[in-house]
Amino acid sequence: MREFATGEIEKPARYMGGELNCVYKKGAPVLFALCFPDIYEVGMSHLGSAILYKILNAREDTYAQRVYAPWTDMGARLAKAGAPLCSLEEDRPLHAFDIVGFNLSYEMSYTSVLYMLDLGGIPLLASEREGCPIVAGGGSCVVNPEPVADFFDLFVIGDGEEAAGELSGLMAAHKKKGFDRKAFLLSAAKLDGVYVPSLYRPEYNADGTISKIKALLGAPEKIQKRLARDLNAAPAVTRPVLPYIATVHDRCVLEIMRGCTRGCRFCQAGYIYRPVRERSVGALLSQARQVICATGYDEISLSSLSSGDYSGIGELAGALLTEYEEKKVSVSLPSMRVDSFPPEVAEKLQHVRQTGLTFAPEAGTQRLRDVINKNVTEEDIFEAVRNAAGSGTRTIKLYFMIGLPTETQEDLLGIADLARRIRDEAAKAPREGRRARIAITVSVACFVPKPQTPFMWEAQDTLDVLWGKIAFLRERLKIRSVKFDYHDPRLSFLEAVFARGDRRLSAVLLKAHASGCVFDSWQDCFDPKKYDRAFEESGIDPKWYANRKRELTEIFPFSHIDYGIDENYLKKELEKAYAGEGTPDCRKGCRACGLEKDGLCIQGGGR
Ligand code: SF4
């Protein structure tokens, strides 16, 4: 593939490989392609893929290599020449691997998966893949993998650290005795957390809803998620591959914690990554040292869903600032109240240059924030804003959601009102004798009901309603120093279709792919008309999936996939949402979400 990465191709370094720290090895019986359905710069920034690269390559029996989606210029060149998509390490065609694993973290990457399979010379349908690699998927979208079930041989549900290695081991054993695809898949289905979709058959009612999901050939009725119980025992990336070109996150990233216990009712990550697991301060400091030594990075950033909740944040921040201040390695810290740090760290933090503050009030009124269980008050927001403005922040980005359950016009007006008051609060913070001038961006996303959340039964607003709300906000946000931007509702609509969709949607994806849909999350590539045609030609009404409120008794396409959260708990949370009742952070007391039953949660497990 490298020979095609010349001439008119944009950023040929995307296709060259040979970066510092990439792995070369010989003689491993299992070849595992780690595919990311987006361009190099995005895929290289994905921490989960880097972790799997390390884990798989640490095994003697496996050689893991990276494959990213070629941008459209390179894709067209490969297709024209009939040359296959290849890995970066060995320039090996995708079809010449044993396992081809895709990260699925965004519904709008599905057509890019098909694009990569096609370019890699692998049949799109799993049923037509005899003699070809096993195609596996993992990542947050496998909470409901059904819209892409026909394209995958198996999925890993939950944390992939252990399961990826087990799959590799299983492949090595099966290759040794003469590989038989069916026998391999039947064995794979016995591994914890491995879902083989061809072993399940959904049956439908006359109204299109699911009547039953039948497990075949002895496959388990439910597939329970895998859980890396002890994050300190899980491998961390210490020698990341160092790209030649700038990537989205081109720095040392420390995963300080997995999971979040705040319980925001719209947030899928907050439910599916439970329980909270932390890495120790000592382990993180050691990881930082190894990464800086192996890469020369001059920036360290802390990653988690809610870094302010990490129990050792003060100690870690203090140690990193002390160790790296003189080495000119900057430390990006989550925005939070300076008073939550010990005084000596708070003092240092005052000097950390903050380029911008992002804050997610999510809703414009306290009433709606109570509905979604966003436990943040206006005073919390104002305090963070004053602190940030006082320490030099010049830009503030505020994230809101529209179309949330129970939303009224008053809530939309609340967004404009809050933005104005935040601007005024920020301006009060004195800085170098002058009042701070702050630029505020209000960024609005459309609510997408997601599986495994209390709102998974809710309808999404129709596109007309969402466009109307955006137009309303655009008018109301004509405020000095405040900019307005929004996520394309047509993308959110499709996200909602695929997030709770079933296997019948694979026909739509095949047609969308055939008509050239790829990189749908990129503004300049997304073509909603192609999707409209694909739905029409498939005889499928996307509104039935996105805009329909589900009965509480409905069987979801993903009902057989078990993330450990009790459905009755989610229903109770939904009820509390409509009553405007909050559920406190479960670190302050277990709320019995279901994970405590199987001892999956240490915090709740003792009850
Ligand atoms: S079991 Fe309890 S402590 Fe654990 S995540 Fe669920 S509610 Fe929180």
How would you sum up this structure, described in words?
- With 607 residues, the chain is α/β, with parallel strands linked by helices.
- Among the domains are: 2-224, Rossmann fold, CATH 3.40.50; 564-598.
- It contains 20 helices and 21 strands.
- A six-stranded mixed beta sheet has the order 2-1-3-4-5-6. Strands 15-16-19-20 form a four-stranded parallel beta sheet. The protein has a three-stranded parallel beta sheet with strand order 10-13-14, with helices on one face.
- The radius of gyration is 24 Å and the shape is globular.
- The termini are far apart.
- The model has no long low-confidence stretch (mean pLDDT 92).
- Bound molecules: iron/sulfur cluster (SF4).
- Iron/sulfur cluster (SF4) binds at residues 261, 274-275, 586, 590-593, 595-596, 601, 603-604.
Looking at how many chains there are and whether they match, the oligomeric state comes to single chain
Distance between the termini: 56 Å
**Uncertain residue segments:** none
Please state the second-level CATH architecture of the domain at 2-224.
3-Layer(aba) Sandwich
Structural class: alpha/beta
Q: Order of strands in the sheet with the most strands?
A: 2-1-3-4-5-6
CATH fold assignment of the domain at 2-224: Rossmann fold
User: Regarding CATH, which class of the domain at 2-224?
Assistant: Alpha Beta
- Please work out how many helical segments DSSP would assign: 20
Radius of gyration: 24 Å
Biggest pleated sheet: 6 strands, mixed
Shape: globular
The amount of helix comes to 25-40%
Overall pLDDT confidence: 92
Number of E-type strands: 21
Could you say which small molecules are bound to this protein?
A: iron/sulfur cluster
| Strand proportion | 15-25%
